[in-house]
Design a protein that fits this description.
This protein is about 30% helix and about 25% strand. The chain is α+β, with helices and mostly antiparallel strands. It has one domain: Cytidine Deaminase, domain 2 (3-Layer(aba) Sandwich). It has a 5-stranded mixed beta sheet with strand order 2-1-3-4-5. Bound molecules: tetrahydrodeoxyuridine.
Length: about 130
Amino acid sequence: MTTLQTLKSQAQKAMKKAYAPYSNFNVGVALMDENNNIHLGCNVENSAYPEGVCAEAGAISNMILSGGKFIKKILIVSSGKQMVTPCGGCRQKIKEFSDENTQILIDHNNEMTQFSMNDLLPHSFDKTHLPR
Ligand code: THU
């Protein structure tokens, strides 16, 4: 299996675990960190709707908890009819742990589309803007 095939099958496995009874929209994420360890996430909704958590946020939390510090590749799958790219908040969350070489991969209908962070969040805010 190639790395991308592994990430895809892991993301699909994560997507099956999604708790999304309100939107019925399942999202799964598999990300690879700087040590080639893989971390998974799925969306977890809540009856108080804004309290739901996106799949990307869950995968990033799992990476940090396991000691990973950097996202080399992040692959996202969802149950919708259209290709889904990360929401605005998740773009900012991914940015915190990526650089221009980070691959943001969306698999939809067996087609892989690749974006860079700059494709998804140009002119964005990051730690370089903060006073030291
Ligand atoms: N969702 C994600 O998990 N990631 C995204 O990037 C887009 C949206 C989830 C949040 C919510 O549980 C459902 O998809 C519908 O918005």
